[in-house]
Amino acid sequence: METTTHEFQAETKKLLNIVINSLYTERDIFVRELISNAADALEKFRHESITKTDVFDGHVPLEITIDVDEKKQTLTITDTGIGMTRDELEHNLGTIAHSGSNTFLSELVEAARKDISLIGQFGVGFYSAFMAGKEVRVQSRSWDGSEGHEWVSDGSGSFTITEMKGLHRGTKIIIALKDDAKEYAQKWKIESIIKQYSAFVSFPIKLEGEVVNTVQALWTRNRSEITEEEYTDFYKFIGNATTEAMYRLHFSADAPLAINALLFVPQENFEVLGFGRVEPGVNLYCQRILIDQHSENILPEWLRFLKGVVDSEDLPLNISRQALQDNALVAKLRKVITKRFLKYLDEEAKKDEEKYRKFWSTFGLYLKEGVTSDYEYQKELGKLLRFESSKSEDGKPVGLADYVLRMNPDQEEIYYINGPSRAAIEAGPYVEMFRKKDIEILYTLEPIDDFVLSHLAEFDGKKLVSADRADLSLVKDEEDARENEVGDDGDSLDKEGIDALLQWMKEELDAVVTDVVVSKRLVDAPAMIVNPDGFMTSSMERILAASRKDQGLMAGEKSKKTLEINPKNPLIIKLAGLREKDEKLAAEVVKQIHDNAMIQAGLVVDPLEMVERNYRILNRVVD
Ligand SMILES: Nc1ncnc2c1ncn2[C@@H]1O[C@H](COP(=O)(O)OP(=O)(O)OP(=O)(O)O)[C@@H](O)[C@H]1O
Fold it and tell me: 171 in ligand 1 pocket by Cβ < 6 Å?
């Protein structure tokens, strides 16, 4: 019979190399990977056979069989699943099927370097067979009934495929074990791995003729009958996790939709650990039959960190994966489950804020992503956001609902200001008036925060307002206004002096500001930059400029700012005097004040020009 020889794809060779040489401490997972592939193949077959009648070997029971042979040192895993045609064998077991295989690989290398045990979370897939096998044979026959084939490789660089007659539907994997992997030919060893990793596989696993797993869908059982241990074991199984989950939500509903959902929040955020974007971790079932693994449809993208299952009897069993995407029922399910989960988080936060804070620091970024990308859940998400504030303890962010409770009776808006750190914000000009009037202000310390709050726009009927807005309504009452206005107490400038100074400063700064005005808000600082348009905050502007630069785009038109000055500040008072004596130097000082205020706003100035000017001023000082 004709045998063809094929080279592994370059990426596959790399992967094989890693699998064989660096993952040996995590060897046990290869059993889990092969069982999970077998279960996938069975699920696929079950799903397909619902709609098709002409399936090959239709009478064969759906199960996984495992046999060990201590004498021959082999381990054999057989499934009666969907099987593979010749082409599928060549393609699926010769290349890396994952999308973006190269990124996957580099992440894998990265993970191997960091913490080998984390790699188990990703699933190395079929190739993990070579962790323990010196040779792997895959005999497979597709459910379409075409002739079966055998695939053979020692994992070094190539594989062969030969036609093989008389096979049943499904796949048999025969692993000739390496000398140092003999233990995998022992029944107890395999049994303990199955108990640890594969207890919840939804098909019988027969080890040497004996069923060793409980084939029951945990999520369909009554909550009160499920033990903590069972939940944890199930989470470990479904999330490939080694620890228990941070949060768990198990809920059922009958109307308007029949839903059974079991969702887990992991302990770690793998995206920030440097593993790239995580795949969605929730599987969609209909009456216990898997119809969409790692479903992208059942939850919004920003909940991709969740693990678990959703089962709904209302879904048509024969729905194709493509049809799921724009199925109205799936959209409804998504909405119900998402809202329920967000409500659950809010309840948990109320019960144990400390624990929720841990969740927030690990997964808060996803919820922020939700606010900026999904209008539908903004109200629910708003309650879950946390920020540091002028009234929060360092490192203990507060929620918007708490802020609202503490608001002054006459306060109508919720204020926030962006900055690189609590210390930097508190030393800056924007919080001065808030401090003086004892009004709480939120500190947005992350680049994305201002986008989040501007998308949210309001909370509990109160507008969210950045404190770098020009038209801040904070100084409303006349008293304040008067207090901050120019007095004639000799310490400050008179009205004419001020007007003249403003006029002149405006001329000097004409190219960079829209206006120079007397501030009603500054208490100590000489000046600050505010945004006249009130839409973009300085932080948002900085980030957009940086991202344009990253993308190699031309810098956008810079929006012009307004400079507010404090006529009670000694520097400003003396500036008027200096102007009379040495207008040239005074003009340099004006420009420097502007640049300083820009820097405090987190905005970019021309460093070359600014440093040169700074030296010119210093030279005069030391003269
Ligand atoms: N027992 C099997 N029966 C049928 N097809 C299989 C079997 N094992 C593997 N395959 C096919 O080979 C492909 C590659 O398997 P591999 O385990 O490397 O990746 P995967 O299963 O797609 O990804 P992951 O393991 O990360 O879930 C699978 O997608 C599947 O199409």
Answer: yes
506 vs 516: CA distance, rounded Å: 6
Q: Is the CB of 123 under 6 A from ligand 1?
A: yes
Q: Among 92, 119, 293, say which to mutate for ligand 1: greatest number of ligand atoms within 8 Å of CB.
A: 92
DSSP secondary-structure letter at 570? H
Q: What is the Cα gyration radius of the chain? A: 33
pLDDT, tens digit, 9 for 90 and up, residues 95-121: 876 544 455 566 666 665 555 555 555
Count CB neighbours of 91 within 10 A. Answer: 13
Measured from the CB, is residue 120 less than 6 Å from ligand 1?
Answer: no
For residue 483, give the 3-state DSSP assignment. helix
Q: Which amino acid is at 44?
A: K
Helix (H) or strand (E) holding 238: helix 228-239
Give whole-number Cα distances, 517 to 146, 396, 476, 500, 504, in Å.
82, 37, 17, 12, 12
> What would the pLDDT profile of 120-170 be if each residue is shown by its tens digit?
555 568 988 999 999 999 999 999 999 999 999 999 989 999 999 999 999
- Taking the CA of residue 82 as reference, the ligand 1 atom at the shortest distance is 4
Burial (CB count <10 Å: 0-12, 13-18, 19+), residue 6:
middle
CB 345 within 8 A of CB 383: no
Predicted complex: ipTM over 0.95: yes
Q: Please report the atom of ligand 1 found closest to the CA of residue 83.
A: 4
Neighbours of 10 (CB within 10 A): 10
Task: Give the separation between CA 66 and CA 191, rounded to whole angstroms.
Answer: 10
The structural domains of the chain, ordered by start, are 3-211 (3.30.565.10), 218-361 (3.30.230.80), 385-466 (3.40.50.11260), 495-531+557-622 (1.20.120.790)
Which tokens in the block code for residue 508? 């000097």
